[in-house]
Write a structure and sequence with these properties.
The complex is a heterodimer of chains A (415) and B (141).
Chain A: H1 14-19, E1 27-28, E2 31-32, E3 34-35, H2 46-59, H3 69-89, E4 97-100, H4 103-118, E5 124-128, H5 137-146, E6 149-153, H6 163-169, E7 174-180, H7 192-201, E8 206-209, H8 221-224, E9 228-232, E10 243-247, H9 249-254, E11 265-268, E12 273-275, H10 289-305, H11 307-326, E13 331-333, E14 343-348, H12 353-362, E15 365-366, E16 368-370, H13 375-381, E17 386-390, H14 397-414
Parallel strand pairs in A: 3-15, 5-6, 5-7, 7-8, 8-9
Antiparallel strand pairs in A: 1-2, 4-10, 9-10, 11-12, 13-14, 14-17, 16-17
Chain B: H1 3-15, H2 20-33, E1 47-49, E2 54-62, E3 65-72, H3 75-88, H4 93-97, H5 103-106, H6 121-138
Antiparallel strand pairs in B: 1-2, 2-3
The chains are: A alpha/beta (415), B alpha+beta (141).
Chain lengths: 415, 141
């Protein structure tokens, strides 16, 4: 029995969803675009594009300051969005949702606001081998400044964090655990709930880098009980340059502000400044207002399809593509964790990933090649990089078929 | 042949291909057919690291002429490296410094010289010219 054909369950009408994303109907190098670089950034639905136009056509004004009509309209739209984000991640309080520039900015905020206050000489920060540079470098910088130590939990050969090794690293010296929810290079879904629980048993707070999870799976920060959760808007179908730091109120209140400036103050004299309340304490300067608004719009859009449906459909695409790719001669998958998001990193014997990326691009197919900002991870596997295909819910099995046929053709050219 | 004449030769060579596939197959052939650099020169000090692919470049003087040999771990980059070496190697440092590599644009491969490609090629061309300056000053002119 052939189970790979025609077994797609109907989660939603993909054809009609594709029409919501205008960019998907364009061609690249004379071929219909096949966009498989969703782990880098996602495409935007028309409602998000319209929200940007609407903002600058009807609502543009600075927020939180003006008494005039437009300022109130813009403030309302921005704050409505914060509430939608709160509900989306099930944060308890609205002011635990801090607007940032993105995941990297959120991690740097915590490294500065939390790290510089609570981490000192000899203290330890625990991360894992599969972290993105954004969840390595800010901690390294902090450790260098404070004389603290960065401890790295290893992964096994399939790309899963070795739990017993991670647990061995936790000690009274550990002041923070910072782990990604989903690996950007391998797709591994990490057992964050268990990690949070074990860390909390020792009173260690935990930051979760959710950049590669928030678009694929339901995140409930109260159920996870994480102390910080960061993600980017642009990987969730909203604008670039905007993201979210969720933090528990108790930590956010204890932390120092990251940046000084407008909107984050209560009173300023040349002698002493007192800081504004949450969330404004961490939102210095005029923010990316329409970006923040589009994040709410994107969440409405995602909710209208349903994250459960998105997740189930993407898993089908992942399985379908993995099965098809595994039939190729000389294929090697990098990252075969039991639980994976819709990301496939692979190599083909005798073919450099860069060359494969160049030829696929000529065929209208966008994938990512290189080290994916995870150089230590690539060193671990002793490879220069990988080719990575990552899927979103607007991708189709037909696109996977085009991709596979193109990979075969490219490999024949390059070998 | 002058640097200009070699470039004209490459341009007419690529004129034979009317689609991208032919061009790329030719580049790949160039990469496969040429022994580019001696293993002993594949040293870390000769390595130009790109984010996507890496290039090794070695330079030495042969009389008045500067001779390059180079290699890359990616085959398309290696083919383009071979073209650069073919154009610039065996000329005086002055000729190399004054050269304008217009052939890349003419054969429709300009995108590979975009800094965002990060394939090591742009840095390699810069390094070739730096060798030109270095050997020129060594000659004491």
């Amino acid at each position: 029995m052939n189970l790979t054909q025609n077994t797609t369950k109907i989660y939603f009408d993909v054809a009609s969803i594709r029409k919501d994303f205008p960019i998907l109907s364009r061609t690249v190098n004379g071929r219909p675009l096949v966009y498989f670089d969703n782990a880098a950034t996602t495409q935007k639905p028309q409602v998000v594009i319209d929200a940007i136009t609407k903002y600058y056509t009807h609502q543009n004004s600075n927020i939180h300051r003006g008494v005039h009509y437009l300022s109130q309209v813009a403030t309302q739209a921005y704050e409505d969005s914060r509430e939608k984000i709160r509900a989306f991640i099930n944060a308890e309080k609205n002011h635990e949702v801090i607007f940032t520039k993105g995941t990297t900015d959120g991690i740097n905020l915590v490294a500065n606001g939390f790290g510089r206050k609570f981490i000192g000489a000899g203290d330890e920060i625990v991360i894992s081998e599969l972290e993105h540079h954004s969840n390595i470098v800010p901690w390294q910088m902090l450790c260098e400044e404070k004389g603290a130590v960065l401890r790295v939990a290893p992964i096994n050969e399939v790309g899963e964090i070795v739990m017993e090794e991670l647990l061995k690293l936790l000690s009274p010296r550990t002041k923070l655990v910072a782990i990604s929810h989903v690996s950007n290079a391998l797709g591994s879904v990490n057992p964050i709930k268990e990690i949070i629980k074990k860390a909390h048993d020792l009173n260690i707070p935990v930051l979760i880098d959710g950049a590669q999870a928030i678009q694929h799976t339901k995140v409930d920060v109260q159920d996870l009980d994480c102390d910080f959760y960061v993600f980017s808007g642009h990987k969730l179908f909203a604008s670039t340059g905007v993201g979210i730091l969720y933090g528990k109120e108790e930590f956010l209140n204890k932390m120092n502000p990251y940046q000084g400036g407008g909107d984050m103050i209560k009173t300023v004299t040349f002698e002493k400044t007192t800081y504004n309340e949450l969330p404004h304490k961490f939102e210095a300067g005029t923010p990316h207002i329409e970006g923040g608004i589009t994040l709410g719009t994107a969440i409405d859009y995602v909710n209208s399809i349903g994250l459960e449906n998105i997740s189930a459909y993407e898993q089908e695409l992942l399985e379908y593509a993995t099965e098809k790719l595994s039939q190729l001669e000389g294929i090697r998958f990098i990252g075969t964790a039991k639980e994976k998001a819709s990301v496939i990193s692979f190599l083909i014997d005798g073919v450099h990933p860069y060359d494969l990326g160049v030829i696929l691009d000529k065929m209208g197919i966008a994938i990512r090649t290189g080290h994916h900002c995870t150089q230590p991870l690539m060193q671990k596997f002793n490879i220069p990089g990988t080719a990575r295909a990552s899927f979103a819910f607007y991708n189709t099995k037909e696109e996977v078929d085009v991709f596979i046929a193109s990979v075969i053709k490219a490999a024949a050219m390059l070998k | 042949m002058t640097i200009k004449e070699v470039q004209e030769e490459i341009i007419s060579e690529f004129d034979m291909f009317d689609d991208w596939m032919g061009k790329y197959e030719h580049i790949i052939e160039l990469a496969k057919s040429l022994p580019l650099i001696k293993e002993e020169y594949k040293l870390s000090e000769n390595l130009i690291k790109g984010c996507q692919s890496q290039v090794w470049l070695h330079a030495e003087m042969d009389g008045e002429k500067l001779v390059f040999s180079a290699d890359s771990d990616a085959i398309i980059t290696k083919g383009l490296v071979a073209l650069m070496v073919r154009v610039l190697s065996g000329h005086t440092p002055d000729e190399i410094l004054n050269s304008d590599l217009y052939f890349v644009d003419q054969i429709g491969l300009k995108e590979h010289l975009s800094p965002t490609r990060s394939n090591g090629l742009v840095s390699m061309i810069k390094q070739m010219k730096i060798y030109g300056i270095a050997f020129k000053s060594k000659q004491g002119h």
